[in-house]
Specification:
The chain is an alpha/beta fold and about 260 residues long. The protein has a single domain, classed as Rossmann fold (3-Layer(aba) Sandwich), CATH 3.40.50. Helices cover about 55% and strands about 10% of the residues.
Length: about 260
Amino acid sequence: MKRCAALLLAFAASTGHAAEPARVLILGTYHFGNPGKDMHNVEADDVLASQRQREIEALVASLARFEPTLLALEWPKALVDERWAKYRAGTLPESRNEVVQIGFRLAKAAGVERVHGIDVDGNFPYDAVAAYAAKHGQQPILDAARTRSAAMVARTNELQRTHSIGAVLHDMNLAATIDADNAFYADMLKVGGGDEQPGVALNVAWYTRNMQSCARLVQRLEPGDRAVVVFGAGHAYWLRRCVIDVPGVELVEATDYLPKD
């Protein structure tokens, strides 16, 4: 029976035996299929091109060194259940999505059967933030935040021209890059005043979505598990924070298992 990692740790303490921690590697990615759903979007090269496929093979081989026992992916549970079954049967249509290109391929290469969708829908009430800022002279806050975000995306686009997919992901998963990415949300806290706090509401909605996903992850973990989480890089900050805070779970740095060139 699966139990939350925190409950397992408590049980182990009560019996005098320390449970082996579950270890979690969070891989933040850009979206390979160019869905265009973010405020600023990486212009991904065609990952089905032969050179990029070789790079993904090398990336998967490098991640397989972690010896994962579980994959947690940025699709809802029902979608992963359906498409993972088709992938294993060889009937899934060709897909550029990183869930398939990295997540499913890694699971197959590592012989992992526990593949879970942990994403959930969430609100992103940016329109209220923008409206408040425009009305109260706070537009420069948003302009500066968006300029910094655009610069980070431009850097990733440029790295694609000279580096492998694995090396691009290595850069995206550096702690400094993750912190810089999350700075957008800290900037949003500057937008508001008094009892009207749209920047806070935006942060609460974003935090809630990430904690919903993290809960679905930790509720699947067992002592000694080695989980790889494949999610959009914007989620990495809060997913990492959650994993660090949950008793009985240890964070493993993705950069230790990613190519640098």
